[in-house]
Amino acid sequence: MLPGTKVASSQKCPQQEVIDENPGSTRLKSIALDPLENLHISFLKWTMNVHKYTSNATVWGDCGRYPLGVVLSKLVFKYKERLHEMDSEGSNALVRHAYCEQKQLNLTWHRTLTAAKSRLETVETRRIYWPSQIRSGIKSWFERIWNIERLSNRKLKFYNSIKHEFKEELYLRLGLDNGISKRIAQLRSSSHNFNVETGRYGVNRLKPSNRVCKHCCTKDEATLELLLELPFSKPIIEDEKHVLLTCPLYDDLRQQLLPTTRNLLEKDIGSIFENSVTIRDIGSFILKIFERRFLTKNDSG
What we know:
The chain is built from 19 helices and no strands. The chain is mostly helical. The protein folds into 2 domains: 6-156, no CATH class; 170-299, no CATH class. The two termini are 42 Å apart.
């Protein structure tokens, strides 16, 4: 279908979405609103077995998948370049006449692609001649936006401590048991029901007592509230690092880990996910944590 027809003209150009703003503005949310990309990100979440509300930044990042608008940008600009060449050569093809008419009318598809290329050249401070250069530039631009988005998201504190570059994670390529892969993805992306997450919501979401580890703190709500009001009180938050490293509820499971895994767990958690042996080891550990912490399937997320 020729760009500029009813379907193409009605949609905002996904390539323009990626480089529409300066790098200080996050654009991931608007990129995901594109109907095709919304379908793409939903499919990725389904393959990872995570909740639909899981952060898009963690899904793109762990899958190492760029939005479809970025992936297809080379073909899009190559097609536009071909139409431009036909116009320059004075071709009698019908598609060339349609292109000239749409360019003269300054339709959405032509206007946004032209603007996207111009903005990219401004950012790259160089002339761009080839569609492959455009796609490469848009990929780099997307990675910059992705970095800004994840690093500015307080919910992704754990993810940012273990994720340092945009690439497909090894745990997704190992053919792990579905339950293990699911729990690894949930823990990494903070898409789970540990108190650090569930305590973010509801009418009492500002109360620190909502996020504490119920195993490590008193279960008496009134006493807990009084303790947290003390000047030097530091609540034990049930977050990802707590359940992995220090919560005594899982001490026996921790002892079952390989020495290498235990060592990395204490020194550099992110390195665990770079080796197939330690991934399988930590994956089984994480699965057992979920099984012990959440006695019913509906509680585990």
